[in-house]
């Protein structure tokens, strides 16, 4: 039987439901210092945190055991929405899966805006539960997907959840999904640095995340948020595999003239990567067929293997493989 969204989520020890944002030097609502450190003085959450259960999450060893059969775990992050993070995650999954000897999973942790099932053409699927756990939805023999979308009774239903409930679901995705033996698990996260990122990071720390790929577009408004994402990764101890600039230039398919639709006013992703001392993995051009392929749930790489976007993407993928599997 498929799990239903309305059902209470199993959570042995979730973070307490806070009434205000955590202050800057918050020790963490479940840390041993919660409610007691200097930063807690005057915080509206103090009493809630002081009463919350303390110590390491007892589910972490279960998650670590469950994910021990997955060789590499890669997070895909972006500072802003709409820069092509989910598109990149789906292209990366297809690219990895083009090796028939590899098995790939993609976990859609964008709980409020799940788009991976649409991009993978499995939107109407539901999750089945076996004795071993929740079974992901298989797109092909070697490519599986797990998303909250599969639990929504209606495709257009909004998921309006506060942090602790979102964290509970992410924990269940990590603890209860029976991925089996896999070479890569790609985790598509929501934009920004929010509850979901903190949960994924703290729950996966022991399992070992290989690193994060950051996706941006060339404009400064997008790069601004990437700087925050880089800072988040550094503070959280997540290795940055590199930065990908998406929607980088447009080559007209008719006249082959190249235009910069989103101009890199401050040097774009390449300059930012240099400035922040992180690898620049490549620039993927705008191509309307990328959007079309995603809307129809097709693999752009298979349909247009010679396009400049496919060529650029394959180069990015080659570098990611080298970084995680040197
Ligand atoms: P995000 O996950 O960052 O919110 P999406 O992956 O949903 O962004 O992409 C937003 C839109 O941009 C989608 O319609 C997608 O098809 C389109 N898109 C992404 N990358 C490209 C590209 N390189 N060329 C053309 N369209 C793209």
Walkthrough of the structure:
There is one protein chain. This protein has 326 residues and is of the alpha/beta class. It folds into two domains: 21-31 and 38-56, no CATH class; 60-324, P-loop containing nucleotide triphosphate hydrolases (Rossmann fold, 3-Layer(aba) Sandwich). 33% of the residues lie in helices and 19% in strands. It has eleven helices and eleven strands. Helix 2 crosses helix 5 (163-176), helix 5 (163-176) packs parallel to helix 6 and helix 7 (220-236) runs parallel beside helix 8. The protein is globular and about 65 Å long. Mean pLDDT is 86; it is low at 8-13. The structure holds adenosine-5'-diphosphate (ADP). Adenosine-5'-diphosphate binds at residues 78, 81-87, 115, 246-247, 284, 286-288, 290-291, 294, 309.
Helix content, binned percent? 25-40%
Mean pLDDT: 86
The radius of gyration over CA amounts to: 20 Å
**Ligand list:** adenosine-5'-diphosphate
Name the shape in a single word.
globular
Amino-to-carboxy terminus distance: 42 Å
CATH architecture of the largest domain: 3-Layer(aba) Sandwich
**How many beta-strand runs?**
11
Instruction: Give the C-level CATH assignment of the largest domain.
Output: Alpha Beta
Q: What fraction of the residues are assigned to beta strands by DSSP?
A: 15-25%
The major pleated sheet works out as: 9 strands, mixed
Oligomer: single chain
Q: CATH topology of the largest domain, anyone?
A: Rossmann fold
CATH superfamily name of the largest domain?
P-loop containing nucleotide triphosphate hydrolases
Instruction: Give unreliable regions as ranges.
Output: 8-13
Counting structural domains, the number is 2
The number of distinct helices, counting runs of at least 4 residues, comes to 11
**Strand/helix succession:** HHEHEHEEEEHEHEHEEHEHHH
